[in-house]
Design goal:
Blueprint (H helix, E strand, L loop, with lengths): L2 H14 L3 E5 L2 H12 L3 E4 L6 H9 L2 E4 L11 E2 L5 E3 L14 E5 L12 E5 L2 H10 L27 H12 L24
Parallel strand pairs: 2-3, 5-6
Antiparallel strand pairs: 1-7, 4-5, 6-7
Helix pairs in contact: 1-5, 2-3
Length: 198
């Protein structure tokens, strides 16, 4: 059954032009895996983003600052400056992948490829792919089955998508034409106006 997730990952790789794709249970967890892998000491990004992003920086102990420009609002994607990581939650089009980068997409409600839940990492770094593909599923090496036969595990996280989400995402992706669905403008709140406490 896990082949259904691999089928979607291969189809999304072909559509976006990314050599590798890792499907996750949400876009925020996709970003987390990228940050855990690259371990940037600090990042800078737009303050107009979803609440989970500054929460994630607190969770990982990453110093962060906001770009102090009103024009840093975004409609499709933005980069975490000082990294190769992108929050591409609202972007989905053919050949969208940028070589050398890690682009994290969302399949949440209101996103171009909407299935209600899920995300993915688009990347071309084979070593990062091999690490994160195991991390997203509790450190499991999927070439070993059943999993109790595996004796050594990377530290992993329970960030895998469901089979049903992968099947639905593949169906939606196959229905895309050359032009993706037009996305309504979404204005995220200014995260500089919130306080996060432990």
């Amino acid at each position: 059954m896990f082949n259904k997730i691999l089928d979607f990952e291969h189809a999304l790789a072909e559509y976006t032009g990314a050599p590798y794709v890792i499907m996750t249970d949400c876009c925020t967890h996709a970003i987390e895996l990228c940050l855990r892998h690259d371990q940037p000491p600090s990042v800078t990004f737009t303050p107009y983003t979803y609440l989970s992003i500054p929460m994630l920086m607190h969770k990982l102990g990453i110093e962060y600052s906001y770009l102090d420009h009103a024009w840093q609002r975004w409609t499709t994607e933005y980069q975490f400056h000082n990294t190769r990581i992108w929050d591409s939650a609202r972007h989905m089009e053919r050949n969208m992948y940028r070589p050398g980068q890690m682009q994290c997409v969302s399949f949440g409600h209101g996103k171009p490829l909407s299935v209600g839940r899920g995300g993915a990492i688009l990347l071309d770094d084979r070593d990062a792919y091999q690490t994160m593909i195991q991390q997203r599923y509790d450190g499991r090496d999927l070439s070993i089955a059943p999993w109790p036969a595996q004796r050594t595990f990377r530290v992993g996280y329970h960030y895998k998508p469901t089979i049903e989400e992968a099947v639905q995402a593949l169906t939606v992706l196959q229905g895309f034409e050359q032009t993706p669905p037009e996305m309504p403008l979404v204005v995220y709140p200014d995260c500089r106006e919130i306080t996060i406490t432990s």
